[in-house]
Structures are given as C-alpha cells and as structure tokens.
Design a protein that fits this description.
The chain is α+β, with helices and mostly antiparallel strands. It contains three helices and seven strands.
C-alpha cells in the first residue's frame, strides 16, 4: 500500500497550524471504532477503520472556528481524512501513495484523564501525537501569543 514518512514539528508549528486548542477530559466510553464500507469497491475491498475519541471540553485556549464548541466532542484520529482518501484510491483505483506525516513529540501520556489537545477544523488531531499535558498550559499559551494566534477571549456581559 503506501509508506508514511514522519516529519517532526515544533510546538510553535503545531500551534500555527491548529484550529482548536482545548483542555479536555476523557469521557466514557472513550474510544469509538467504526468500520466504513468503501462504496463502489469490489466485494473483497476491506472497510476503512475510522477511530475517534470522546472528550469533555473544559477550556478553549484557541478557537478559530465558527463559534464555541459543544461541551462534549468526538475527535477523529490524526490524518483520518487523508487516510480514508488514500484507502479509497488504493482499493478503487490501485493507486499507492507515500505521504509525509507531521508529528509532534510530546512527553504527555495519551491515556491521561486530562489533556491539552490540538485539532484541525474537522475536529481531528491536527498531526500525530497532537496533545500535551495540562501542566504545559502556560507553555502552550505562550506559543499561542508568540505565533499571533487568537486565543479565546472571555465574553464580557452586557450591562
């Protein structure tokens, strides 16, 4: 099939390319796996394995979307949209592609109850390992300010 080529990115690069940066808490059940059939494929064409994760949003550190997020969100695995497209190309058209895969190197444990997560506009992890420990909140906010990214501003009530 295809070969993935990992490319390391810094926290600043991750912040610049991220639509949402959220402090979240895992929900139960946490992981959801869905087998997506490939329409138009041969009968022996394997379905695509779509993985997502459930979180409760505790705080929006950066939001460049259309508005506030729902309190509970479902987050797609990194590169999921691209992986689905490549899966379809391979099984429908016989096209095998190599792809560069940006990855962030974090020391945080993905199994932690709380994390800071970095998402694209499709609510997928922006890159591989796009999460950080809550203890790194100040470092993440500094990167948001440094990159000129818009952090969420508190709403000011009307008088």
């Amino acid at each position: 099939m295809s070969q993935d080529i990992p490319v390391d990115i810094s926290l600043d690069e991750l912040v610049r390319g991220t639509c949402y940066i959220l402090l979240v808490e895992r929900r139960s059940p946490f992981e959801k796996i869905e087998m997506v059939p490939i329409e138009g494929g041969k009968p022996d064409c394997p379905p695509f394995r779509k993985v997502s994760f459930r979180y409760l949003v505790l705080e929006e550190l950066k939001n460049q979307g259309d508005g506030p997020l729902r309190p509970e969100i479902e987050v797609g695995a990194a590169h999921m949209s691209m992986d689905l497209e490549m899966h379809r190309d391979y099984y429908l058209n016989g096209v095998s592609k190599s792809d560069y895969r940006p990855e962030y190197h974090t020391k945080a444990d993905f199994a932690s109850a709380k994390l800071i997560i970095f998402l694209n506009s499709n609510l997928e992890f922006a890159v591989g390992n796009a999460y950080e420990a809550p203890e790194c909140r100040a470092k993440v906010l500094e990167a948001i300010d440094k990159c000129g990214a818009r952090a969420v501003q508190p709403e000011i009530p009307d008088d």
